Amino acid sequence: MNRELTRKVNTLFGVGEDRAKKLGKLGIFTIFDLISYFPRDYEDRTRIKTISELVPDEMVCVEGIVSSVPKRKVIRKGLEISTVRVVDEGGGMEMVFFNQKYATAGLKLGERYVFYGKTVLNGHRMEMHSPEYERKSDNVKTGRIVPIYPLTAGITRNMMAAYIRGALGKTLDLLIDPIPEEYRYEYNLAHQVFSYRNIHYPENGTLLEAARNRMIFEELLVFAMGLGLLKKRRAPIEGIKMEKVSLSPFLDKLPFKLTGAQSRAIENGIEDMCKGIPMNRLVQGDVGSGKTMVAAALAFFAAQNKYQTALMAPTEILATQHFETLSPIFESLGLKCELLIGSTTAANKRKIKARLDSGEIDIAIGTHALISDDVTFSNLGLVITDEQHRFGVGQRATLMSKGKNPHLLVMSATPIPRTLALILYGDLDVSIIDELPPGRKEVKTVAINDEKRKTAYSFMAGEIQKGRQIYIVCPLVEENDELELKSAKQYAEKLGREVFPNVKVAFLHGKMKSREKEEIMSAFSANEIQILVSTTVIEVGVNVPNATVMAVENAERFGLSQLHQLRGRVGRGSEQSYCILFSNHTGEVARARMKALCATNDGFKISEEDLKLRGPGDFFGTKQHGVPNLRIADLAHDLVTLQKAQKVAFDILKKDPTLEMPEHTELADRVKLLFKEEEYGDIFN
Prior knowledge:
CATH topology of the largest domain: Rossmann fold
Number of helices: 22
Structural class: alpha/beta
CATH superfamily of the largest domain: P-loop containing nucleotide triphosphate hydrolases
CATH architecture of the largest domain: 3-Layer(aba) Sandwich
Distance between the termini: 20 Å
Largest sheet: 7 strands, parallel
């Protein structure tokens, strides 16, 4: 990639250190990041109407001459309006600006401008409120299709457009097309320079579609290439060959019978572990489907073969829960099980590490503490990671390096459609647990608006009187959105003050330090807190059986699969549990989402429905699932394109397995950019 494209964004004219930091919040650090920051939407401003043609409540362009000097008046404290009259051949109208003191400063009496905004009928007069405007000859804000970019505090729409225009002007001629010419022709793809120009500044809808199609294909080709290289890491290497032994002693200790799906996943794992090459298996199952018992069975199997197991969970709470659940079973079978987490005392850490090194411990359960440099295993044969999307490939590799090509089992409670799972986890074999244990009560789900809020609060109070606990989740668009964070905190305080005055209410958010979050969750687990209000997704896997209500504010702002994950935080005990979805949104898609969630508790059905209903964006939520963050492609909607891109990636890797040929240099650079080394290791090794 040309060095100009990799320069820091603050080297661009008009972007200082402060604005560079703000752009960094949007994932823009280099010039290439900037030109690859694609619009989330477009406004068609090519249509210009005369004033006589206008109808109320439409976004439209009007061309006219300023026929009056701008007037400004204060209506009341905090409300000041500026007005100017504009005329054309068919009539006249007022342009009205609210609390924009200098908005009319650029308007000169008698000169012609193009205005873009929303028309409003005020009595019998047509107005346009706070329009954008420019001289007709400028043709930047009007007379064309205008891109709409996601923004952050301190970066305005005009700033972003100016930065991108400046960057494109300097770099378009430096771009090297990563897609080999033969495939561009085969799949009828536009050239890269054309596509960058028309995705940011399309001349018409047809050219925009051609540009988007090309850029989506390019991104998915790079994505597929990275997956292919990850898969190549699985080239057969000598691993631990275990011998088949009976699981009866383990199964006899369980107070329940395994489901058919659990048994099949265990059989898959045992077959893998007896092949003599390292197992790489994903166990994917819905909340409560029993993935942990699959992991425990394989840990027992490894121990019977005289090998140690390391089970790594993303949080201390989850690791502790696994330990409390599994250690009694293992201890009753004569196996030694220990917990190693950050808060383990220094003295205990030393003892545990010594016993791991000597081989006295059969199963170690812990957090990132397991991958510390001074942790060594005597004979590590099986590595298990829970909620695998929470760990980078590098962390997983570090734990694997503590054994000699040990077997790997990764677990995920995020049901996604089978085809998508096989594509995304191309470097793993997939076992799907699609049955729930018998007798488990389904969570009852209702979607309500604010009219029934008091009734819902009364119901929650009744559950608390029974000794139960409640989660309330508030959406947060960005973790750095201070206004929403403040609003959620105020909401939590109001609940504790006015709605549930005799109940302990706590507030949890993503900006808290890990230790603080752990303390709050521990207090909630111990029923020292009855209502937990959170701005973040409650930790996946956290098990508080006493919690029977999950209430979600502004539920329409979550994806279906996210809502299903939240619902999975309740229904974990013997009591009937409930999920209450608060939403005043009346849109068709929002209603369909709520209806789908109320109709079923099957995570796989919900994930399929999510693919049909959701809008553009990351199917998995923000950067959560070990999948690189895609800028324009949509893994759900663009599945057919992904399959085509995979075919091209396979062809290229067959000819050039490490992308060393000169014609693939740019493609290799793009793969490195998408699959960052700190997350995935060196993808070419």
